[in-house]
TrEMBL record:
Protein name, UniProt field: SET domain-containing protein
Sequence segments annotated as region (Disordered): 8-30
Residues annotated as domain SET: 153-301
Listed Gene3D superfamilies: SET domain
Keywords annotated in UniProt: Signal
Magnesium as UniProt keyword: no
Organism, scientific name: Stephanodiscus triporus
Record field: compositional bias (Low complexity): 8-19
Length: 316
């Protein structure tokens, strides 16, 4: 017998994944109990959910992230779907960078950061902002007074602000000072990026978050294959890892989808004209001179597989 949702037979593993009739109630932390002959196994109903199923079925994140919901059938929704089909994505919110929205985001990053330190803690995470003058001296003398302070450290080490990147892109990150070619822009070694090595621990972390934070957490996480720097490099992040940033690097958009050249590239910059970029690990540099006011645009393919195959390989 099955406790909880009687329509969902938890002993059939296929029924717990993807079948909308079996979708759990949101945020109730409920479990399905399977009664065997001698034992009762309590199996969490999110047990086998893939990342896509968590996003679509468990949390129904469409309305949270893109502003649409399955039961919305008005004309706006049809137009919205058309737009999504064209662009692949859609962001409806017109007030994406109001102070209230940014406060909410900062609060979510802090919540994720604290929970990560409490429950996972595989890499050092810092709660305090670094001393800006030290950072400025190290990274080329930018005037860091211009940079709005975030809670905790940020991986973005150039003067920047979160801004409205337009109706299809949503928020983005913009330079607030000119950045010379080859400057360090993102340092994911700054104690502001968490790592998970096992898909299931990431899944467990996701399902215990409030719905709106969970949807962002899923949207912001990425899987990356990190190549070691040498035979003796035993950094826990080497190999296949899931990463989550606790800062505004989560808001950086992709250049490729608009057929633009990324101005912010992962890996060490080529040492000579026409040379190759080094392996993408934790540092991102200016691919050219970037003017104040320009959006900092990544090439998502630098750090994650476009096919998103890594999620399957890591158990999600
Ligand atoms: C890491 S987030 C970037 C922040 C996002 N713009 C926001 O406001 O939350 C990645 C998401 O941003 C959107 N995005 C990124 N680059 C885009 C582009 N070039 N065109 C349209 N949407 C883009 C997509 O929805 C994508 O899933």
């Amino acid at each position: 017998s099955v406790s909880g949702d009687a329509a969902c037979d938890a002993s059939d593993s296929s029924s717990s994944s993807g079948d909308k009739n079996c979708a759990p109630k949101k945020d109730d932390g409920s479990h399905d109990a399977i009664t065997g002959a001698d034992e009762m196994i309590v199996r969490p109903i999110w047990w086998e959910y893939s990342i896509d199923q968590l996003f679509e079925d468990y949390f129904d994140c469409g309305s949270v992230i893109y502003g649409y919901s399955d039961d919305n059938s008005d004309d706006d929704f049809v137009a919205l779907l058309d737009d999504r089909a064209e662009r692949g994505r859609y962001t409806k919110n017109s007030d994406v960078v109001s102070e209230a929205q940014l406060q909410k985001l900062r609060h979510q990053w802090e919540m994720l950061r604290e929970k990560y330190v409490r429950e996972v803690n595989l890499v050092p995470i810092f709660h305090e902002a670094e001393n800006d003058s030290t950072t400025a001296a190290r990274d080329g003398g930018f005037d860091f007074e211009e940079r709005p302070r975030t809670h905790g450290v940020s991986a973005i080490v150039v003067p920047s602000r979160i801004g409205d990147a337009g109706p299809t892109k949503g928020r983005g990150v913009f330079a607030t000072a000119s950045i010379p070619k080859d400057s360090l822009i993102i340092n994911l070694d700054s104690g502001s990026t968490g790592v998970f090595k096992v898909g299931h621990s990431w899944r467990e972390f996701a399902v215990s978050l409030p719905r709106d934070v969970a949807c962002n957490f899923i949207e912001w996480s990425w899987v990356q294959m990190i190549l070691p720097t040498s035979e003796t490099d035993d950094d826990i992040r080497n190999g296949l890892s899931i990463f989550i940033a606790f800062d505004e690097t989560n808001l950086m958009n992709n250049a490729d989808w608009d057929s633009e050249e990324a101005n912010t590239r992962c890996g060490s910059p080529p040492k000579h004209q026409g040379g190759e970029w080094g392996h993408c690990r934790f540092h991102y540099y200016a691919a050219r001179d970037i003017a104040a006011g320009e959006e900092l645009l990544l090439r998502y393919g630098d750090f994650e597989e476009i096919s998103q195959r890594g999620w399957v390989d890591i158990g999600l």
